[in-house]
Amino acid sequence: LILFQKGQTTTPPPFEIFFCFGEEWPDQKPKEKKLITVQVVPVAARLLLEMFWCELSWSADSIPLQISHPDLKDKMVEQFKELHQLWQ
């Protein structure tokens, strides 16, 4: 992700995780032809990628938060802010 953010690679890192149930995998068949596949998309990974996609110009400090009780989402936003500051 850091190499992508710095422009050292043109391909964004993959963040989706695929699981196949009931069949051997990987094999010659594409995942679309499998009987049961599950795609897991970690939200934190997707948000980080979107934050750096096409050199977005928004600042992590500009995220408006109006949540009265801190929860896991607040902690994630704080971690993203810290990461953003480290990368700058």
What does this structure look like?
The chain is an alpha+beta fold. The protein has one domain (1-62). Helix content is 34%, strand content 11%. It is built from three helices and two strands; from the N terminus they run H-E-E-H-H. Strands 1-2 form a two-stranded antiparallel ribbon. The longest helix has 16 residues, at 72-87. The radius of gyration is 17 Å and the shape is flat. Mean pLDDT is 76; it is low at 55-59.
- Structural category is alpha+beta
Kindly, what is the distance between the CA atoms of the first and last residues, rounded to a whole number of angstroms? 14 Å
Q: Provide the number of structural domains.
A: 1
Roughly what is the average pLDDT, rounded to an integer? 76
Shape: flat
Number of strands: 2
List the strand order in the largest sheet: 1-2
How much of the sequence is in beta strands? Answer: 5-15%
Helix and strand element order: HEEHH
Spans of at least 5 consecutive residues whose pLDDT stays below 50 are 55-59
Our count of helices gives 3
What is the alpha-carbon Rg in Å? 17 Å
Give helix % range.
25-40%
Reported for the largest beta sheet, the result is: 2 strands, antiparallel
Give descriptors for this structure.
Interferon regulatory factor 5; alpha+beta; SMAD-like_dom_sf
